[in-house]
Specification:
This protein has 178 residues and is an alpha+beta fold. It has helices at residues 19-25, 29-36, 40-48, 70-84, 95-98, 102-112, 132-139, 143-151, 168-176, and strands at 2-6, 11-15, 55-58, 64-67, 129-131, 158-160, 163-167. The protein has two domains: 2-84, Multidrug-efflux Transporter Regulator, Chain: A, Domain 2; 124-176, Molybdopterin biosynthesis moea protein, domain 2 (Alpha-Beta Complex). The protein contains nine helices and seven strands. The strands form three sheets. It has a three-stranded antiparallel beta sheet. A two-stranded antiparallel sheet has the order 1-2. Strand 1 (2-6) and strand 2 (11-15) form a beta hairpin. It is elongated, with a radius of gyration of 33 Å.
């Protein structure tokens, strides 16, 4: 029995009963995914993005089967591999690595990868707004006690983002009333 598949590029003729011809002329989605080294779902995404064409035929079970052209899969694989290979360049800053001078190399990493971060540290006692942990550290009370005080409205606190914030003056007032 002869079947015909029409793809956007050409018509493919193959004999459904000939297993040898079937393997050399077309690929199912599992074989195509294995050839590319990706999952079947990733292969589906590539077909949705029109990077790889797919045709469908009715299989022996009556279900439609996805058919891929092995030449197109091989071409896509070659193009993908060319895109992912990037040449390495050596700059004058890399000389520290070449000489195995650890100290200079670490300094290079600090300047190249980790730009200077300006951090301002403020003592907890000087902050006008405190997180629950900071209020606990400042007062010596546990987080649970402070959270219960917020829940019972003995202490004013507001959820900002994912953490409670407590005004310093409200915390002082709560401590005086203990």
């Amino acid at each position: 029995m002869m079947s015909y598949l029409v793809t956007p590029h050409r018509a493919i003729v193959f004999d459904v009963t000939c297993r040898i011809c079937y393997n050399s002329c077309i690929m199912n989605k599992e074989d195509a995914a294995k050839e590319l080294g990706i999952s079947v779902r990733s292969l589906q995404r590539l077909t949705e993005k029109k990077k790889i064409s797919v045709t469908y035929k009715r299989g022996e079970s009556g279900k439609q089967e996805a058919i891929f052209d092995p030449k197109e899969i091989e071409n896509y694989k070659r193009e993908r591999d060319v895109e992912t290979v990037k040449s390495a360049t050596v700059t004058s800053d890399d000389t520290a690595l070449a000489r195995n001078d650890t100290h200079q190399f670490l300094e290079f990493l600090k300047t190249a990868i980790m730009p200077e971060q300006k951090t301002v540290s403020v003592a907890i006692a000087d902050k006008p707004l405190l997180k629950l942990d900071e209020a606990a550290a400042l007062t010596g009370l546990s987080r649970d006690i402070l959270r219960k005080a917020i829940d019972t409205k003995e202490l004013k606190g507001k959820m900002i983002g994912k953490a409670y914030r407590i005004k310093r003056e409200d915390l002082d007032r709560y401590i005086k009333n203990l």
